């Protein structure tokens, strides 16, 4: 009877050992499994501990660094999304619409036009036209951008189905430096020039109609360059603090990078975050004074992430009735936070 039991256990258990050894084998097997489980738990805990120590040892990231890095990721996501996704985002950002015009709040980092084939606002306008519910759209009409804001510019962007006479657009910028005088008109033509050197590139530049004479006691008129474009910009300083200024700009012409060039080269007060026009002879991140870096809580090595602080705040269109159409665009979060850090305020906030 004992032999029969051993054969039965050996046959159906597929263990070629006597059945009376089964208890000892099961004990050994359980012990091995328990040891392996404890080893896996130990490795998992050690790995989690190393990750915790790595996070603890990582240098702290300032709030401003987090904001600009998030902004950079956000802008890249919008550029790489499907055109329908961008069109839906623009539909949600509409500030004003009627049967002839649409005004949207342009997001940061998205170009109005892009000849390279990348996703741009112009490329999704046919889809946006179809999404404009509640507006009677002619079958042969299509939205077209009337003003071409820079890729890094935010704010009110006018789209029209017919030619519209734009009366006025007001921009708010933060400049590095204080413009002198505090209010005026910059009327200097602009031309595109090639910058030679280790990093050859093209930039818009001033093409003045006047220059100092040889003795330096008067100015003389020079012949206008035939490729230069007339450009005029009104400006007004709203507030100054911490070596920076909040400035209101009204472009009276539509030359490429006009406001950036006039501020950087005519007033020597480049826009905060303008890495292109803060230097003439090289391509490099904007160099900021230590005082400004301290206010922003940034290191110079991280300035490349600082966005351009140029926002199209208010747009005015001539109305069909006696009243004009005035549309305001809210400031982006990063712009408002920078104003707070630099202790800059709008005139109406000072009166409160």
Automatic annotation (TrEMBL):
Sample GO molecular function, one term: pseudouridine synthase activity
Catalysed reactions, semicolon-separated: a uridine in mRNA = a pseudouridine in mRNA; uridine in 5S rRNA = pseudouridine in 5S rRNA; a uridine in tRNA = a pseudouridine in tRNA
GO aspect biological process, one term: pseudouridine synthesis
Assigned keywords, A-Z: Isomerase
Span of domain Pseudouridine synthase RsuA/RluA-like: 100-264
Keyword Cell inner membrane: no
Family to which this protein belongs: Belongs to the pseudouridine synthase RluA family.
Protein name stated in the entry: Pseudouridylate synthase RPUSD4, mitochondrial
Gene source species: Sphaeramia orbicularis
Gene name per UniProt: LOC115418847
């Amino acid at each position: 009877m004992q032999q029969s039991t051993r054969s039965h256990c050996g046959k159906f258990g597929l263990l070629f050992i006597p059945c009376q050894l089964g208890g000892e084998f099961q004990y050994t097997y359980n012990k091995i499994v328990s040891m392996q489980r404890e080893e896996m738990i130990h490795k998992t805990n050690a790995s989690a501990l190393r990750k915790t120590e790595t996070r603890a040892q990582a240098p702290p990231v300032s709030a401003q660094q987090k904001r600009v890095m998030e902004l950079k990721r956000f802008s890249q996501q919008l550029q790489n999304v499907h055109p329908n996704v961008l069109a839906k985002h623009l539909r949600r950002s509409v500030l004003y619409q009627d049967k002839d015009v649409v005004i949207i709040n342009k997001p940061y980092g998205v170009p109005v036009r892009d000849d390279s084939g990348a996703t741009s606002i112009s490329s999704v306008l046919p889809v946006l036209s179809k999404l404009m519910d509640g507006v009677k759209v002619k079958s042969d009409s299509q939205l077209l951008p009337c003003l071409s804001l820079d890729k890094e510019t935010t704010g009110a962007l006018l789209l029209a189905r017919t030619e519209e006479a734009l009366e006025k657009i007001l921009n708010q910028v933060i400049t590095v430096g204080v413009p002198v005088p505090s209010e005026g008109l910059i009327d200097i033509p602009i031309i595109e020039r090639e910058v030679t050197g280790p990093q050859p590139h093209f930039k818009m530049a001033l093409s003045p109609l006047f220059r100092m004479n040889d003795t330096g006691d008067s100015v003389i008129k020079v012949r206008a360059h035939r490729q230069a474009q007339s450009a005029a910009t009104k400006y007004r300083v709203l507030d100054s603090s911490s070596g920076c200024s909040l400035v209101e700009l009204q472009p009276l012409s539509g030359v490429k990078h006009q406001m950036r060039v006039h501020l950087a080269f005519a007033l020597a007060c480049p826009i905060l975050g303008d890495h292109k026009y803060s230097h003439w002879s090289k391509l490099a991140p904007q160099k900021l004074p230590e005082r400004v870096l301290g206010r922003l809580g940034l290191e110079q090595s991280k300035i490349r992430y600082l966005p351009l602080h140029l926002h199209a705040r208010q747009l005015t269109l001539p109305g069909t009735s006696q009243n004009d159409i005035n549309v305001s665009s809210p400031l982006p979060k990063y712009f408002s936070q920078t104003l707070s850090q630099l202790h800059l305020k709008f005139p109406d906030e000072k009166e409160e």
